[in-house]
Structure formats: C-alpha cells, structure tokens
Amino acid sequence: MGGRQVLAARRQLAQSLDGELPEHELVAAARAVVAELGSTERLLELISELACGEGDPAGCARLSYRHVLGFDKLLLIDGGPRHMLRAHLWHPGAAAIGKEDIHNHRSPLASYVARGRLTMELYEQDEQDGQSGQGGPRSGGGMAAARYKESLADRSADWLLEPAGPARLRMTHVGQYTAGSAYALPAHTLHRAWCDTDVPTVTLFLETGSGRRRHTDVFTAAGPHPGTVPKVPLDVAGYLAELGGLAELLRSS
Questions:
Q1: Neighbours of 134 (CB within 10 A)
Q2: End-to-end CA distance of the chain
Q3: What mean pLDDT comes out for the span 138-160?
Q4: pLDDT at 237
Q5: How far is CA 1 from the centre of its chain?
Q6: Beta strands of the chain (E only): which ranges?
Q7: pLDDT band at 133 (very low <50, low <70, confident <90, very high)
Q8: Burial (CB count within 10 angstroms: exposed 0-12, middle 13-18, buried 19+), residue 210
Q9: Quick one: pLDDT at residue 135?
C-alpha cells in the first residue's frame, strides 16, 4: 500500500532499524533516518502523497488524535512492533491536561524539527524518593512531583494513570531545537518538551524497537491527574484534512 514516497520511506525504515540492535545503536540509527526523512522536501512530498489517500488512511486515522501533552499526533507509517513514524503539530500556547508532564517512553525515539522550535528538558529521578523517615522525598534539592504509571486500557486506546507515590526530580539538561535539528533518546529517559515560539512547530517523530515496555512513567507537579484520559481518534476525512493542512504549513515555511 502506498505511492512512491510511502514505499521509499517504508524501505528506508526497515533497512535502518530492523534487526536486533543494542539500544545505543538503535538510538543512533533512528536519529539518522528521521533526519533524512524529515528534510523539508522529503517530508513535504511524503505528507502530500498521504494527504491524497496513499498509504493506509483508515488505519492511520484510528491512531491519530490530540495528545494529552498538547500537540496533534498524526500517524504517517505504521511499521507494527518495529517502528511508527508520526508527524507532530505543536500549537503555541496550547492548553492540555498533561502539558507540564515529565515522562519517558515505551521504546527508543528520535525526532526531527521540520518547522518552528522546541525546548526540551531532561531529568533524573532521585534514588531516595519514596523512602520514609528523615530525608524523605520532600527534603533536599530538586523538584517535588507526583508519579504515575501510564499504560493503555484493555480493549480501548485510552490512557490509564495509576498513582505511584511522591518523587523528586533533578533537571540535568535544557536545550532548544530549531528547524533542521534532531535528537534521539533511550526509552527510559525522562524529559519534557514544548513549542516555545508564537508560530506552529512541526516535528517528525519516530518510535522504534520491538521490546516495548508495558508502561511509562509520568511525573507532574501540576496537581492530580484523572485516572483515565480518553483518546479521541480522527475519522478518515478529518485525518486527510489534517495532512492537507500540514502540507500547506510546510510549503509556507
């Protein structure tokens, strides 16, 4: 299924990422391939082709929605358990349930900024968090947060958030990623990213690796989360319209 650009992207993803690579090699390979596919001309051609109905619009629409972190998540290529290629459209000043959340992922990831700019912070968890007595989780440096285990609900695509106690986090890095830059992270890396400009930001996001974790870790200092957060998928017409609008946005860059 798919036109010339879709088939070429599928081949490149398979050649670069299939096989049992150690995580550090998988992270490096993911960063390289997402930078190639995310170049302005290549990404515009791919999205324009998909907006015309190539690929698997029905299957991709079912897995495309507004994410709790405040961006539109559009699945472009579904590579099953091996890799999933998505376009993320970040809206300036967008309000969302999890906008301030710090989180990790089920598998290694890579992202390329095609338009706009992101700021990203990296964190590490205090090894003493959750312990009782003197020097407990709210003493010392760092940021106090509530920890949740995030998983997917059975028989639905909703997020489930299970409270997992208090925590303290330390920020280890902060950086800005402008158009033309890429980054990649191992699955367990705690981070937070957001659009820090007054224009929309577009990123090409690649999730890869067959050994996916059953849950991720979510930390928030913004107050309690609801136990279940629904995903509202796009229908096919809405999905194709979103892709068409994204193509126009890229043409105007």
A1: 6
A2: 29
A3: 74
A4: 97
A5: 25
A6: 65-66, 71-78, 83-90, 102-103, 109-115, 117-125, 143-152, 159-178, 182-185, 190-195, 201-208, 216-220, 228-229
A7: very low
A8: middle
A9: 38
